[in-house]
Amino acid sequence: MSASIDAAPRRDAGLARQHLIDPEICIRCNTCEATCPIGAVTHDERNYVVRFDVCNACNACISPCPTGAIDHWRQVLQTKPYTLEEQLAWDKLPVQAELDVGAGAELPLEVAAATAQATAGQGGTVSAPASAEVPRTNLYSLKNPVIAKVTGNFRLTAEDATSDIRHIVLDFSAAAMPVLEGQTIGIVTPGVDEHGRPHYVRLYSVASPRDGERPGYNNLSLTVKRVTEDHAGQPVRGVCSNYLCDLRNGEEVRVVGPYGASFLMPNHLGASLLMVCTGTGSAPMRAMTERRRRLKSGNEGGQLMLFFGARSPGELPYFGPLTQLPRDFTDHNLAFSRVPGQPRHYVQDLIRARAPDVARLLRDEESYVYICGLKGMEAGVDAAFGEVCAAHGLSWSELLPRLRESGRYHVETY
Ligand code: FAD
Question: DSSP readout, 45-57?
Answer without folding.
Answer: SS-EEE-TTT---
